[in-house]
Amino acid sequence: MNTINHHFRREARIMLGVVLFVVALGLLIGLLMPHLFAFMAEDKCLDSGGRYDTQQHTCEPAPPAQP
After folding, report:
1. Which terminus of the chain is more exposed, N or C, with fewer CB under 10 A?
2. Which pTM does this prediction carry?
3. Where are the beta strands (DSSP E) in 1-67?
4. Can you tell me whether residue 59 is helix, strand or coil?
5. What is the pLDDT of residue 23?
6. Residue 25 φ/ψ, nearest 5 degrees
7. For residue 27, with 0-12 CB atoms within 10 Å meaning exposed, 13-18 middle and 19 or more buried, which class applies?
8. Distance between CA 49 and CA 65 in Å, rounded?
9. CB-based contact 47:61 (threshold 8 Å)
10. Over the stretch 4-18, which tens digit does the pLDDT of each residue have?
11. What is the DSSP letter of 1?
């Protein structure tokens, strides 16, 4: 009977660990997503030849090419 109790306690700890891991992963993703989106917006602007204003978070497009 004691070994069955030990087994259920171990399973409960494992399930709690999985839940805590998922919650921690969700928080980490939630905290990092705004930074990732800002980086991607800046990178996209620079790749298109524009200039990125970090204070206003806007992209100034490149002037049209002269023929």
Report:
1. C
2. 0.61
3. 51-53, 58-60
4. strand
5. 98
6. -65, -40
7. exposed
8. 11
9. no
10. 687 788 899 999 999
11. -
Residue 12 contacts residue 6 (beta carbons within 8 Å)? no
Structure tokens at 30: 């939630």
Q: For 61, phi and psi rounded to 5 degrees? A: -65, 155
Cβ–Cβ under 8 Å, residues 61 and 50: yes
Alpha carbon 24 to its chain's center: 12
In the structure encoding, which two tokens stand for residue 6, read together?
């030990």
DSSP labels, 3-42: HHHHHHHHHHHHHHHHHHHHHHHHHHHHHHHHHHHHHHHH
